[in-house]
Amino acid sequence: MFKNNIKIAWRSLKKQPFFTFLNIFGLAIGMAGGLLLGLYIYDDLSHDKMFVDADRIYRINSDMKFGGAEEETAEVSAPMAEALVNDIPEVEMATRFRNIGSISIRLQDATDNVREHQIAYADSTFFKMFGIQLLHGDERTALVEPNTMIMTRTAAEKHFPVDQAIGKTLMINDQEVYTITGVMEDLPKNSIFRDKPIFLAMSGYEDAQLAEWGNHNYYTFVKLVPGASGSDIQDEMQAMVGKYLIPYAQRFFPGITEQQFLDSGNYVNYSTIALTDIHLHSGRSPEFSTVSDIKNVYILGAIAIILLVLASVNFMNLSTAHSLKRSKEVGIRKTLGSQRSGLIGQFLTESGLIAVGSLLFAIVIASVAMPFYNDLAGKELSIPYSNPFFWLILLVAALVLGLFSGSYPAFFMSRFVAAKVLKGQGDNSIGGGRVRNALVIFQFSISVFLIMGTLTVFQQLRFIQGKDLGYGKNQVLVIGGVNSLEGKKQSFKDAVLRISQVNHATLSSNLPTPSARSSGTYLLAEDRSQEKSINMQQWEVDEDYLSTMNLSLISGRTFDLDRFATDSSAVILNEKAVAVLGKTPESVIGTQFVGGLEGGGNLSTVIGVVKNFHYETLRDEVGSLALFHGGEFASNLAIKLNGGDVAQTIAEIENIWREMAPTQPFDHYFMDDSFNASYEAEQRLGEIFMIFTMLSIIIACLGLLGLATFNAQKRVKEIGVRKVLGAGVGQIVYRLSVDFLKLVGLAVVIALPLGWYAMDRWLQDFSYRIDIPWWIFALSALMAVGVALLTVSYQSIKAAVVNPVKSLRNE
Question: 3-class DSSP state for residue 746?
Fold first, then answer.
């Protein structure tokens, strides 16, 4: 019976190639889109699950308010790891990391350095914690000794064969010698450690504040005993504030109690986040590596479902419309004794064949699109062809989708009454009635919704990229790694300034673009109480920073060591810091600060105030900032160019670099590129939105094209009569198109308020955002109506120009 159904289904599909193509192509696009998005979502949801006992590993976070500033950070104090192991029975072990940025590295007997980025110090417990096996070396002892290091395969291959790496020594920043004690495989791309090519032994890290509880600069992970969860250690972690942090604070605020600390509005709250939740649920800064957001998963998951539903609706629409042409077939088969269940089985078999054909076509589409999709998504996804479980899931999903899509048409067609359809009195209500109209409205409502979402995302990105950030990021070339110049930094800057295409240059530790930061707590020298403290970002800059970055000085002056020798201990604040202090830009000049919980103790005098500028992303409010004079601590040189031949200018700067640091790599980038990279997630989301919005429109238009075709075929005699009676092509096209356009218009009315609500919610994640402009509503509507009009008009014109004699004769 089943074999016979397949034969009949195959013959039926071959008889209607246009109908079959539209259904297979529409379903294939939906399946391919769902497959690509599903792989993306699976990759995000499986982040860090490859590690041994990943479900028992947690990271410690801290939420703080002190000195008028609130901070949610992924870092805690260095000594907390040891305290967690000693004080909390549920903690089996702990390990720490600290990002240090980039280093230059070379063989001891070599001259040329290689620049490696995203380097971290790590405790020796790192490999035991995460269950990482080394290709070469002993993971139990690899980072125990000072000045030892572990490299990934890729990092090691830059210098020697991997199997010969153990015991080799490398020079770090031309200053320290490290011995390679381990080589590990490159970590998976869906791991938080994917960007880390080298781990240096924490045991050799000289940090004057390593044992201080007031310095939150260490990522700390714990592995809990089996059966324990992060919430089980919450109270014991919080008790560490009174046990360790308050005694540390008493060094600066003698006699202060934990209650007094809390009563003044300050707090330090510790919490845990599961390792497998960091990638999608952290939302903290600075993060150990690039993370995503669970909202993006929800959005992409919704788009995948929408595509599949659209494809399914498309199938239903075309099948119910096509059923009018098959009504006599159903009547004859019923007359010959076919039962309704047999007809349903026959039609569902056709749906199953279409689903399998669509699946094969979808895999071809997804395979061809995969390289482009990976570039778009910033991932390294692949279709797991060798995984039988994957194929089983795919086949079952395709059959379920096909049977679901075909169920309504099957039940609808099987209920035709034989006597009526053979007399030409079949029920046409569904073919041109409410259900079909509702499905068309649904399809185009979704399309309009996605169009509006795409336009809003790109408009917000345009707003971000065009907003006045309070500093000049264009035509600013940044040279990294200038700390490797040692005593030649100023000489390098002076030589660069002599190039005619260079306007300004500045040495600094930080740039206004979003990046890892360093903050400190400072006390007013006139009243060293916690009520008169302030927590600020602390950057070291030279006297040309304001002019190079085009910052606006609204009070006081900038640094000038030639005239004021005391400027070596001066500080410039931003407006936010002044407001937190409760002062005005004028009255704050001359105010003195002393290092507080950071333990510095140096006296600094305010000499100027700059207008607030956005040094974080526009998702965040501007925070308090202090610019200290300290070009000698610079890690980069920012150069403001005046145009001209940029490539030639870069070549001249590189020549100067080669003369002063012949063994060091020349690293450079433009600041606006760094800024744009901060919004890479939104940019990628917008592009994915755009691509899959186009797919949804294609699916909707395929359905509309099929419906318009069947509508024209059904009204062939009517068209012929109207032409004989003098109707023009335009009138006929209007009559064939107007009903469809009314449906699209209703879809627009439904979709626009829903789109506004959804995108307004998305925009709430930004501290600085657009108000959705009216033209986005108008353009979304016009695009949907325009595409629908083109689709319907093509088939309507084709039907309208047919010779009426031929139409009436055929009838």
Answer: helix
* pLDDT tens figures, 382-407: 999 888 898 898 888 888 887 777 67
Q: How far, in Å, CA of 137 to CA of 30, rounded?
A: 49
Handedness of CA 536, 540, 546, 550 (dihedral sign): negative
Q: Which of 448, 345, 470, 475 is nearest to 759 (CA)?
A: 448
Domain spans in the chain, listed from the N-terminal domain onward: 2-42+294-463+682-810, 68-265, 482-663
Compute how many other C-beta atoms are within 10 angstroms of the C-beta atom of residue 478: 19
Amino acid at 486: E
Cα–Cα distance measured from residue 701 to residue 25, given in angstroms and rounded to the nearest whole number: 12
- Report how far residue 422's alpha carbon sits from residue 445's, in angstroms, rounded to the nearest whole number: 38
The whole-angstrom separation of Cα 747 and Cα 785 is 10
Q: How far apart are CA 319 and CA 409, in angstroms?
A: 6
Give which of 568, 637, 642, 664 is closest to 607, Cα–Cα.
Answer: 568
**Position 17 pLDDT exceeds 80:** no
Q: Which amino acid does the sequence have at 613?
A: F
User: Is residue 124 within 8 Å of residue 203, measured between CB atoms?
Assistant: yes
Which of 607, 634, 613 has the alpha carbon at shortest distance from 551? 613
Per-residue model confidence as pLDDT tens digits over 760-776: 988 887 778 889 999 99
Provide the 3-class DSSP secondary structure of residue 416: coil
SS3 string, 241-285, reads HHHHHHHHHCCCCCCCCHHHHHHCCCEEEEEEEEHHHHHHHCCCC
H/E element, 99: strand 91-107
DSSP E strand stretches across 642-722? 667-670
Give Rg (Cα) of the chain.
34
CA gap 336, 338 in Å, rounded: 6
Give the phi and the psi of residue 614 in degrees, each rounded to 5.
Answer: -90, 95
First to last CA, the chain: 37
User: Do the strands 148-152 and 114-122 form a parallel or antiparallel pair, or are they unpaired?
Assistant: unpaired
Number of Cβ atoms within 10 Å of the Cβ of 429: 10
Measuring CA to CA, which residue among 692, 699, 34, 42 is closest to residue 304? 34
**Cα(531)–Cα(581) distance, rounded to whole angstroms?**
10
- Over the stretch 552-591, which tens digit does the pLDDT of each residue have? 999 999 999 888 888 888 999 999 999 888 889 999 999 8
805 vs 803: CA distance, rounded Å: 5
Mean pLDDT of the chain, nearest integer: 82
Residue 643 corresponds to which tokens in the numbers above?
Answer: 């145009």
**377: which 2 tokens?**
């998504």
Residue entry with tokens 């829903």: 754
Pairing of strands 91-107, 216-224: antiparallel
Residue pair 505/547 in contact (Cβ under 8 Å)? The answer is no
Measured in degrees and rounded to the nearest 5, phi and psi for residue 549 equal -85, 0
